[in-house]
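anyone seen this seq b4? input:
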Amino acid sequence: MATSVLVEPLSNPADIPSAILASRSGRVCLLAVFALVAIAIEGYHPYAEDGGLYAAGVQHLLDPALFPQWTAFVLAPMRVSEFAPLVAALVRLTHVSLPAILLLIHGCSVFATLLSGYGIATVCWSSMRARFGAVLLLACWLGLPVAGTSLVLMDPYVTARSFSTPCMLLALFAVLRLTTEPTPRRRLLWLAVCVGAVGFGTLMHPLMAGYGIAAVCLLACIRARSRSARLRGILCCCAAALLLAAALEHLAPPESPAYVAAALSRTYWFPGEWHWYELAGLAAPLLLLGLGSGTRLGRLRSASASLPASSAAEALAQMAVLLGTTAILVCMLYVRPDATSHLVARLQPLRAFQIVYFVLILRLGALLGTHLLDRGILGPALAVLLLGGPIFAGDRATFPSTPHIQLSAERDANPWVQSFEWARSNTPKDALFALDPDYIHAPGEDAQCFRAIALRSALPDYSKDGGEASIAPQLADLWQAGLRAQQSLSSRASSTRRLRALGVSWVILRASEPTDLACPYSNHAAKVCRIS
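predicted toks r here
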C-alpha cells in the first residue's frame, strides 16, 4: 500500500530536475539510492550498543545452549517484543546467516523509513523537488541524535526500533490519506493500513509505538473537519497523557534501593541533568515548527483536496508541537531524580521527540529541495556533503576503531572485537566471563557487545545491562550483585575467590592491567585470562 504513493501523477513535469523522477521505477530507484546514501553516512555496526543486546537474544533463540548463565539479561529485550522471535524465524526459514539477515533488515528498514517519509511528503507538498528534498535531508540526517534522550532517529544497527520507526511514519501517512480520501471505501483502506502499521509496530516496540499512537491520535484530531471536534480531540489527547502520567505516578509500587540506583544511573531520563545544548535540542525544533507554520512553506498547496482544517504540512507541524510540549510538561511534573516513583521516567516521555525531529526534517528538507534539486546533480551532491558530513564525522568519532560499515566481526580490526572472537573460538560454550563493568567505554572498544560477538555468558555490565535493569526492576538486585563481583578485577586472591564462587572461569582485562593470571591471548588493548 505504501508503494502506491510512487505512482501519483506529477503536478508539473516542467519542474522535475531530472527525467528519472518521471516514472515509478525511477522514483523507486532514487529512494533506494537515498537509502544507500543514508547507510553510507551513518554507518553500520550490528553488534554495538543496543544492537548487541538484541542480537544476543536472537542467537539464544537459534541456539538455546548459548548463554546458560546469567541468562536473564539476554532474555530481557524479549520481554515485551516479538523482534527476536521474528528475526530467528527469518533465519530458520531462509537458511541465511544471522549477519546477512541483520544487514538485509537494516537496509529494508532504512528504505521503508524513507519511503514512508516520501509518502508523507506527497500529501504535504505538490512540488516534486520539495518531496525529494524532504527525503534527501532525511537520508542525510537519520543518524541525528534526538536531544539528550540517548536516541538517534534511526540506529546504525538492527533493533526493535528498526521496525517500529517506519511503521510509525507509515501510520502518520495513512492518517493524512485517510482524512483526504473522498470515498468511504478508500478511507476504510487507509484506516486498515494505519491500524496494521500501529499493530505491527506495537508487537516490535510497544514503548515507541505508544508515542506513535499518540501522534496518530493528535494528527487525526487536527485533521477533523469540524473546528469544535478538533479542539475537543486535541484537549482530550493532551489531558489523557497528563492523567495517565498522574495515575502511573500514584499507582506505582514501592521501589527497592537497587532499582533506584539502576534508575538514577540513566541520566538521560532526567532533563535536569542534561547539558544546555541537549535542552536546546528540545526547544529549537518546537520553535522552528511553531514559527514555520505560517511561512510560505507551510502554505504550499497540498497535493490533496483542501479541507477547512489546516493543510497537511501545517497539521503535521501542529501535531509535533503539541506532542513535544505535552512530553515536556509530563517530564516537568513527574520525571525527577528525587521523585517518589520513577515509573513515568522509565517510559522516557521525551523519546516522543523522535517524531518531532522527523517532522522538522521533512519540512526543512522540502524547503531546501525547492532550491537545490533544480541544479542538476551538483545541488544534491553538495547537500549530501554539507548536511551528511557532520553525521558521518559523528559516527567516526563514536566508533573510531571499528570499520564504518561493519560486515564481519571475524575480520574486524578492533582489538577488543578480536579478543571477543578469540574467546568465542577457544573457550567452552558454557564458560562464564567477567569484564570491567564499564568495558564498553574503554578506549578503542567502541561499545561492541561482548555477548553478541563472543557468544559466551558474562556477568552484567554497567551500561547496557544497567539499562535493562532500569526498565525491569526484577533485574536490579541481580545487576548490582554482578557489578560488585567485577569491581577491582585483578589477581588478588579475594577477587579470584569472589569470581570463582559465581562460576566465573575467564576474565577479560585491559592490556595494561597487571595480573598473575595465565592469559593465553592478548593484544595491545585487551587480554583474555583464565581463572584456574
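Residues 215 and 323 are 7 Å apart (CA to CA). Strands lie at 432-435, 457-458, 506-510, 518-522, 526-530. kinda curious what u guys think
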